[in-house]
Structures are given as structure tokens and as C-alpha cells.
Design brief:
There is one protein chain. By secondary structure, the protein is of the alpha/beta class. The strands form 3 sheets. The protein has a 7-stranded mixed beta sheet with strand order 10-9-8-11-12-14-13, with helices on both faces. The protein starts with a strand and ends with a strand. 41% of the residues are buried. The protein folds into 2 domains: 76 residues, Alpha-Beta Plaits (2-Layer Sandwich), CATH 3.30.70.930; 156 residues, Vaccinia Virus protein VP39 (Rossmann fold, 3-Layer(aba) Sandwich). The mean pLDDT is 90.
Length: 278
């Protein structure tokens, strides 16, 4: 059903890591969709979730390290699904793997993922999702127990099952992502994926062979200890959602927690990296 949204157009200086921090903090107060621009970010929140003081607790807006201005606009009711469908194109990851929406023609490849293009992150178009899909295709997932943290559309969890994972938990803090993930898991006839709404505390007292986290730098750094703690010895950690200049900090944090750097991919200055639990 069409919803009325409030749009905030933020101009951020310096652009990074300002934009990344801003998106992370806005996500905690019910902003549910973001479009990065050349000058900052456009952020969207449903009008029913909006209040006059919604930005009061956004810490970066009070910081002297960043100069951030914004304009607020009420967006007329839009059927967002139809808007996404207009612009959603299939994605061919390799000759064996492709993503498409239900309204596209089948690819007839070994790994065909059908993802409904709603406002959840993870359609394969973004560099980070694309690289994480590549990692899953290149590595062994057969009979592995997998966690997809910050699952978005559950696209990574779905491919992990197609690659033979025996049990997958997919978790996202956002209700929209949770609902979209459930739909996509059913749409792809997955039997081994359980979807949950939650945060890193969900990991407590659980163990995984593989942990996938495609989120953003600050959340990764914040939750890295939980990732390491809940990986078995010899387990694999795949991370993305950060830039090339952030890789040394990510690697250093991982090393301190017994996670050894294996390799990374780079695509338009975005990074995906693989680590090994000693």
C-alpha cells in the first residue's frame, strides 16, 4: 500500500566517513532507505515514524568534525515497489550466477536468485553485495553452518544455501528487511534459512562455520568481537560495506581478535575481505 515519506537531503563535509556515520545513526531512529549522492545522502522515513525532534539524538549532527546541512521534504504517496521495478535491472555475477526480479525473464543458470526489488539493501547492484556473492561462489559452503548478519534481502543467505550450506541464520535490525528476507527465502524455495529481526546480541551462545556481514564500517568495528567469539576455530569471516582506506583499520581490529586476513576484493573503492579464525 502506498506510504507517505519524509525525505531529508543531507549535504555532508567531509563526505567520508561523514555519510557512512550519518546513515548508521539515522538507521537507529527508523530511517529505512538511503541514497548516497555526490554531496551527501538522501534519507527516507515513513511519516508515521517521523517526529519533530527526530534528529535531536543524531550525534554526528552535533560534531565539530563535520559540517552537515539538510533540507526536509514530504514526499507524496508513492507505490515504492513500482518505482523500484522501473529501474531494477538483472545482475549477472558470473556465467553460473545471476539475480533477477520475478518480472524478469529466467536466466537458466546454475544459481539463479529471484529477489523482489523492494527498499531492502541487497539486490546485487551495489559493489559490496556483488563482491560478497563472488566470495560465496568461490569458496566452499557445503554442510557449513552460516550466519548472514545484516541480511537485507537475504540474497547472500540464499546463495549460501544454493552452495550447499546446511543451516543459515539471516538477521537484520530493520523490520522492512526482515519481511523482505522472509519473502525472498520463500520465493527461492529455501529450506535451510531461518530469518530473524535483531542485532549482534542474537549471536550469543551460538557457533558458526561461516559468518557474513555486509553492513558498514562502524557497525562492523562495533560488533567484531561478537563475530569472532561466535566463529568456530578455523571458521571464515566475510566482511564488506567499507572503503579501501578503511581496510587497515578493519584488518587491525580483526587481528587483535584472532582473525587472520586472507584476501580482499575491490570494486570502485569498495572492499570485501575474507578472514580466518585462528
Amino acid at each position: 500500500m502506498p506510504q507517505t515519506y519524509i525525505e531529508y537531503n543531507f549535504i555532508v563535509n567531509p563526505l567520508q566517513p561523514g555519510t557512512e556515520i550519518l546513515i548508521a545513526q539515522l538507521g537507529l531512529v527508523n530511517f529505512e532507505s538511503f541514497v548516497e549522492t555526490e554531496t551527501g545522502v538522501q534519507a527516507y522515513i515513513q511519516k508515521v515514524d517521523w517526529s519533530e525532534g527526530i534528529l535531536n539524538d543524531i550525534q554526528i549532527l552535533q560534531s565539530n568534525e563535520f559540517e552537515i546541512t539538510h533540507l526536509k521534504t514530504e514526499i507524496a504517496q508513492v507505490n515504492w515497489n513500482k518505482e523500484w521495478e522501473k529501474n531494477f535491472q538483472p545482475v549477472e555475477v558470473t556465467k553460473e550466477c545471476a539475480l533477477r526480479a520475478p518480472f524478469h525473464e529466467p536466466f537458466n543458470v546454475k544459481y539463479e536468485l529471484i529477489i523482489e526489488p523492494k527498499m531492502s539493501f541487497g539486490t546485487g547492484h551495489h559493489e559490496t553485495t556483488f563482491m560478497m556473492l563472488q566470495f560465496i561462489l568461490e569458496n566452499e559452503f557445503s554442510e557449513k553452518k552460516v550466519m548472514d548478519m545484516g541480511c537485507g534481502t537475504a540474497v547472500l543467505a540464499i546463495l549460501a544455501e544454493m552452495r550447499g550450506a546446511s543451516k543459515i541464520d539471516a538477521v537484520d535490525i530493520d523490520e522492512w528487511c526482515f519481511e523482505n528476507s522472509v519473502e525472498n527465502v520463500e520465493r527461492n524455495n529455501c529450506k535451510s534459512i531461518s530469518v530473524f529481526q535483531g542485532v549482534a546480541s542474537f549471536l550469543e551462545n551460538k557457533k558458526y562455520d561461516v559468518l557474513i556481514a555486509n553492513i558498514n564500517r562502524n557497525i562492523l568495528l562495533q560488533d567484531m568481537e561478537a563475530y569472532s567469539k561466535n566463529l568456530i576455530k578455523g571458521g571464515e569471516l566475510y566482511l564488506s560495506g567499507f572503503y579501501k582506506e578503511d581496510l587497515p583499520l578493519i584488518t587491525d581490529t580483526c587481528n587483535k581478535l584472532g582473525l587472520e586476513f586472507v584476501e580482499n576484493k575491490e570494486r570502485n573503492n569498495w572492499i570485501a575481505a575474507k578472514f580466518y579464525k585462528k
